[in-house]
Structure to design on (256 residues):
């Protein structure tokens, strides 16, 4: 086409750029992307989405941010794919604040129907940096914006609450999850079991495993190992406490 002096339309450019990005030929893709305008074509939202996704997948996040700002600066409205590529890419490397900062206006605008993948990436990112207030605010907003939390959303929050030993919050979330018609999976239950065992409640963890998980066919090796380890730890502590009582009772501590 170049030899014949034919200038491809933007649709053809997008197909070519998508191919280059899939093959991880990013430098060539960027070179051709920057040559589009010189050839008399203007990149559209699809073009930017392809490029942002491509550079994110090879870890060139500064390029992704630059492309995003260029797109917004031209007055183009990011679509779900462009937002998804940017947010997921940045959140995976811990740049959750930057991801939120760049898409917050798009979220508030309400003109783009965001997928759960975008919300879940932000929720997970904020949970990883212990910003649970922000994570919960995003969960609340996604519901108001017509995007219902899914199993991944609940599991991310369950993982945080159980790791932080916030068992009351975890229990509330678990019940809300069931009321919403979302069936917990083995990961959901294992998070609850982990939380119960880490707060010295192996008996409750065992009952949850037997009465709920086994009944639904969801128990796995992780479930058993977590409970067994907790019971072993409980027995060891009990024996240690008994030894200490005898030690103190016989006055042996005074001879030490």
């Amino acid at each position: 086409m170049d030899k014949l002096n034919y200038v491809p339309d933007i649709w053809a450019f997008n197909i070519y750029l998508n191919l280059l990005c899939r093959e991880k030929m990013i430098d060539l893709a960027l070179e051709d992307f920057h040559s589009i305008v010189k050839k008399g074509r203007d990149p559209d939202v699809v073009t930017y989405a392809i490029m942002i996704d491509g550079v994110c997948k090879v870890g060139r996040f500064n390029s992704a941010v630059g492309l995003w700002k260029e797109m917004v600066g031209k007055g183009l409205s990011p679509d779900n794919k462009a937002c998804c590529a940017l947010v997921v890419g940045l959140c995976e490397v811990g740049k959750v604040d930057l991801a939120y900062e760049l898409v917050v206006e798009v979220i508030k605008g309400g003109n783009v129907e965001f997928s759960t993948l975008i919300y879940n990436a932000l929720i997970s990112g904020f949970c990883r940096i212990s910003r649970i207030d922000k994570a919960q605010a995003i969960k609340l907003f996604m519901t108001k914006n017509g995007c219902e939390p899914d199993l991944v959303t609940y599991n991310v929050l369950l993982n945080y609450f159980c790791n932080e030993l916030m068992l009351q919050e975890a229990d509330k979330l678990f019940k809300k999850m069931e009321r919403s018609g979302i069936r917990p999976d083995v990961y959901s239950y294992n998070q609850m079991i982990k939380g119960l065992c880490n707060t010295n409640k192996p008996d409750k963890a065992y009952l949850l495993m037997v009465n709920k998980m086994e009944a639904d066919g969801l128990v796995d090796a992780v479930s058993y190992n977590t409970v067994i380890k907790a019971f072993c730890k409980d027995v060891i502590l009990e024996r240690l406490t008994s030894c200490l009582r005898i030690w103190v009772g016989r006055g042996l501590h005074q001879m030490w």
About this structure: The chain has two domains: 1-147, 150-256. Confidence is low (pLDDT under 50) at residues 252-256. The longest helix spans residues 221-249.
